[in-house]
């Protein structure tokens, strides 16, 4: 009898207190939110639409996979590219999707899902230097631009040790190339091609017709978070099987998927 009254009192107190109701709502919502980090100046994979919302191939893919994996809410958070792995290691985010290449060095710090996209590096130069740089080798030792912490920056450093200008975002690297501050931008090819398709921004810029390396993009989770990794791999597999992956691919690349 005593405990029944106690229980009843507790229920009434909880229902009456706004903070109690708000608290239980918050914890339930948090349990179902997937916190995703990205670097949103990397069109067509992740960028801000005119209304400020984040969009692109990766953003739509992780929303679809998150839904598939049972998350009510997929929250996409913009941060610097070289801050993404530190943010996941300190649990500020649960997942990274950022056109991030699976590399052995990164795989020591995070776990990657199965690859979701095959990419490669290419180099943009100014049109007026095209005859000087018929291939990538010709750029060796020249000042190059790239994004901080990217595979493009690592490759540029191998081509021109100590002569790489690294920027937080790729658009800054493109601007520096146009302004004559470097001779080439080493970057992921699909982003270079998208940039070249934007007529005004890319006027006077062209691509050296050579692909440097094959790279595979993966979605990263905290090292050892196998439960989430499995959910994402299943979600990715389902998205490939039920046509969602193809639909998103068509929207952003207008071609049949290669992989
Ligand atoms: N794919 C490249 C890398 O992983 C570039 C990614 C990016 O700049 N968003 O380093």
Automatic annotation (TrEMBL):
Where is this chain primarily localised?
other
Q: Which GO terms describe its cellular component?
A: cell envelope; membrane
Q: Which Pfam families match?
A: SBP_bac_3
Report the source organism.
Candidatus Anaerobiospirillum pullicola
CDD domains annotated for this entry?
A: PBP2_Arg_Lys_His
Q: Which SMART domains match?
A: PBPb, PBPe
Output the InterPro entries linked to this UniProt entry: Iontro_rcpt_C, SBP_3_CS, Solute-binding_3/MltF_N
What this protein is called in its record is Basic amino acid ABC transporter substrate-binding protein
Q: Where does the record place the Solute-binding protein family 3/N-terminal domain?
A: 33-256
Q: Where is the Ionotropic glutamate receptor C-terminal domain?
A: 33-255
Family, similarity comment: Belongs to the bacterial solute-binding protein 3 family.
> What residue range is the signal peptide?
1-31
């Amino acid at each position: 009898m005593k405990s029944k009254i106690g229980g009843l009192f507790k229920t009434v107190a909880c229902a009456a207190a706004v903070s109690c109701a708000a608290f239980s709502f918050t914890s339930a919502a948090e349990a179902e939110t997937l916190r995703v980090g990205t670097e949103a100046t990397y069109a067509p994979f992740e960028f801000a639409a005119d209304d400020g919302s984040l969009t692109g191939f990766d953003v739509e893919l992780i929303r679809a996979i998150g839904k598939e994996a049972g998350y009510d809410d997929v929250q996409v958070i913009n941060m610097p590219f070289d801050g993404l792995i530190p943010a996941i290691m300190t649990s500020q985010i649960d997942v990274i999707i950022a056109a991030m290449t699976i590399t052995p060095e990164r795989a020591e710090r995070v776990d990657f899902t199965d690859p979701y996209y095959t990419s490669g590096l290419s180099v943009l130069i100014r049109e007026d230097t095209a005859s000087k740089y018929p291939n990538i080798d010709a750029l060796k030792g020249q000042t190059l631009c790239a994004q901080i912490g990217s595979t493009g920056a690592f490759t540029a450093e191998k081509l021109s040790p100590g002569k790489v200008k690294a920027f937080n975002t790729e658009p800054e690297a493109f601007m520096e190339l146009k302004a004559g501050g470097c001779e080439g931008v080493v970057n992921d090819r699909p982003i270079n091609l998208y940039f070249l398709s934007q007529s005004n921004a890319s006027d006077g810029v062209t691509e050296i017709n050579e692909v440097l390396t094959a790279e595979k993009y993966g979605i990263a989770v905290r090292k050892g978070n196998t439960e989430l990794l499995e959910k994402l791999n299943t979600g990715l597999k389902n998205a490939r099987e039920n046509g969602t992956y193809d639909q998103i691919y068509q929207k952003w690349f207008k071609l049949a998927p290669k992989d």
